[in-house]
Fold this sequence. Notes:
By secondary structure, this protein is mainly α. It has one domain (2-98). The protein is built from three helices and no strands. The longest helix is centred in the middle third of the chain and has 70 residues, at 2-71.
Amino acid sequence: MNGAVSAAACHGAADAAGERRAAERRAAERRAAERRAAERRAAERELYEQRLAEYEYRLKHVVLPAMRGCLKPPRERATDGSVVQVAALERLYRVFERC
């Protein structure tokens, strides 16, 4: 009877050790998955910031200069009085500097 109890105790201890190792393995896998997810988020954030910088550059150096050309009146209209300048940019700066 004593031998049977100790054999069961051994199996119980072995099962407990196996369960502990399995739990440690699951925890390690979970940490690795969290680390990979954090790395993926960092890479996505970096890609987003890079694309945003490219977008801002294109907007500033391509789109706005092209629009500026479209918003200017033709030279004939600018000189014949069809288009009147209502404010000068320099004067606007002076007005808003006081605010």
